[in-house]
Protein backbone atom coordinates (compact mmCIF):
# COMPACT_ATOMS: atom_id res chain seq x y z
CA UNK A 1 0.00 0.00 0.00
CA UNK A 2 1.28 3.46 -0.79
CA UNK A 3 1.83 6.11 1.85
CA UNK A 4 1.35 9.80 1.07
CA UNK A 5 4.20 12.00 2.29
CA UNK A 6 3.35 15.57 3.23
CA UNK A 7 5.18 18.30 5.08
CA UNK A 8 4.43 21.95 5.71
CA UNK A 9 8.17 22.61 5.26
CA UNK A 10 7.72 22.25 1.48
CA UNK A 11 5.15 23.96 -0.75
CA UNK A 12 1.64 22.53 -0.85
CA UNK A 13 0.76 20.93 -4.19
CA UNK A 14 -0.82 23.26 -6.76
CA UNK A 15 -2.89 20.52 -8.36
CA UNK A 16 -4.23 17.00 -7.90
CA UNK A 17 -0.98 15.39 -6.70
CA UNK A 18 1.04 14.92 -3.50
CA UNK A 19 4.51 16.05 -2.51
CA UNK A 20 5.68 12.43 -2.50
CA UNK A 21 4.52 8.84 -2.39
CA UNK A 22 6.28 6.09 -0.45
CA UNK A 23 5.75 2.50 -1.64
CA UNK A 24 7.70 -0.01 0.41
CA UNK A 25 11.20 1.43 0.59
CA UNK A 26 10.83 3.55 -2.56
CA UNK A 27 10.05 7.27 -2.45
CA UNK A 28 8.84 9.15 -5.51
CA UNK A 29 8.79 12.93 -5.15
CA UNK A 30 6.77 15.28 -7.26
CA UNK A 31 8.69 18.00 -9.02
CA UNK A 32 9.55 20.91 -6.80
CA UNK A 33 9.76 24.49 -7.97
CA UNK A 34 10.86 27.64 -6.18
CA UNK A 35 7.81 28.32 -4.04
CA UNK A 36 8.38 29.57 -0.53
CA UNK A 37 6.62 27.02 1.70
CA UNK A 38 5.93 29.59 4.43
CA UNK A 39 4.14 32.05 2.15
CA UNK A 40 3.08 29.91 -0.79
CA UNK A 41 4.49 32.59 -3.07
CA UNK A 42 6.74 32.08 -6.04
CA UNK A 43 10.35 33.04 -5.37
CA UNK A 44 12.00 35.64 -7.56
CA UNK A 45 15.78 35.86 -7.58
CA UNK A 46 18.87 34.51 -9.28
CA UNK A 47 18.90 31.06 -10.88
CA UNK A 48 21.26 29.91 -8.13
CA UNK A 49 18.88 31.11 -5.40
CA UNK A 50 15.94 29.55 -7.22
CA UNK A 51 17.75 26.21 -7.45
CA UNK A 52 18.71 26.35 -3.78
CA UNK A 53 15.07 26.83 -2.76
CA UNK A 54 14.05 23.90 -4.98
CA UNK A 55 16.68 21.71 -3.31
CA UNK A 56 15.65 22.86 0.18
CA UNK A 57 12.03 22.00 -0.67
CA UNK A 58 13.16 18.54 -1.77
CA UNK A 59 15.22 18.18 1.39
CA UNK A 60 12.09 18.85 3.46
CA UNK A 61 10.15 16.19 1.55
CA UNK A 62 12.96 13.68 1.98
CA UNK A 63 13.13 14.44 5.70
CA UNK A 64 9.35 13.92 6.00
CA UNK A 65 9.97 10.39 4.69
CA UNK A 66 12.92 9.92 7.10
CA UNK A 67 15.43 10.11 4.26
CA UNK A 68 18.30 12.34 3.16
CA UNK A 69 19.99 13.13 -0.15
CA UNK A 70 22.12 10.02 0.47
CA UNK A 71 18.96 7.96 -0.21
CA UNK A 72 18.38 9.52 -3.63
CA UNK A 73 18.83 7.11 -6.53
CA UNK A 74 17.78 9.32 -9.45
CA UNK A 75 16.90 12.91 -10.16
CA UNK A 76 15.16 14.55 -13.08
CA UNK A 77 15.98 18.19 -13.71
CA UNK A 78 13.86 20.27 -16.06
CA UNK A 79 15.19 23.70 -16.99
CA UNK A 80 13.82 26.46 -19.18
CA UNK A 81 17.20 27.44 -20.62
CA UNK A 82 20.25 25.17 -20.96
CA UNK A 83 22.40 28.29 -20.59
CA UNK A 84 21.53 28.11 -16.86
CA UNK A 85 22.88 24.55 -16.56
CA UNK A 86 26.25 25.46 -15.01
CA UNK A 87 24.70 27.60 -12.25
CA UNK A 88 22.02 25.01 -11.50
CA UNK A 89 24.62 22.24 -11.45
CA UNK A 90 26.88 24.18 -9.07
CA UNK A 91 24.08 24.50 -6.50
CA UNK A 92 22.83 20.94 -7.07
CA UNK A 93 26.33 19.56 -6.50
CA UNK A 94 26.47 21.00 -2.96
CA UNK A 95 23.69 18.60 -1.89
CA UNK A 96 25.44 15.39 -2.95
CA UNK A 97 28.77 13.68 -2.43
CA UNK A 98 30.27 13.16 -5.87
CA UNK A 99 31.18 9.54 -5.20
CA UNK A 100 27.59 8.63 -4.21
CA UNK A 101 25.63 11.07 -6.36
CA UNK A 102 22.46 9.69 -7.99
CA UNK A 103 21.78 9.00 -11.63
CA UNK A 104 20.31 12.04 -13.36
CA UNK A 105 18.96 13.57 -16.51
CA UNK A 106 18.72 17.26 -17.26
CA UNK A 107 16.32 18.37 -19.96
CA UNK A 108 15.55 21.78 -21.41
CA UNK A 109 11.80 22.31 -21.81
CA UNK A 110 9.66 25.02 -23.40
CA UNK A 111 7.81 25.94 -20.20
CA UNK A 112 7.51 24.89 -16.57
CA UNK A 113 4.71 25.44 -14.03
CA UNK A 114 4.32 29.11 -13.18
CA UNK A 115 7.06 29.78 -15.78
CA UNK A 116 9.87 29.00 -13.32
CA UNK A 117 13.39 28.30 -14.52
CA UNK A 118 13.99 24.93 -12.83
CA UNK A 119 11.97 21.97 -11.55
CA UNK A 120 13.51 18.88 -9.92
CA UNK A 121 12.02 15.54 -8.91
CA UNK A 122 13.65 12.57 -7.20
CA UNK A 123 13.40 8.85 -6.64
CA UNK A 124 14.89 7.61 -3.36
CA UNK A 125 15.10 4.35 -1.46
CA UNK A 126 15.79 3.31 2.12
UniProtKB/TrEMBL annotation:
Family: Belongs to the RutC family.
Superkingdom to which the source organism belongs: Bacteria
The protein's name: Reactive intermediate/imine deaminase
Gene3D superfamilies: RutC-like
An example molecular function term from Gene Ontology annotations: deaminase activity
Native organism: Pukyongia salina
Pfam families hit by this protein: Ribonuc_L-PSP
Coiled coil: none
GO cellular component, one term: cytosol
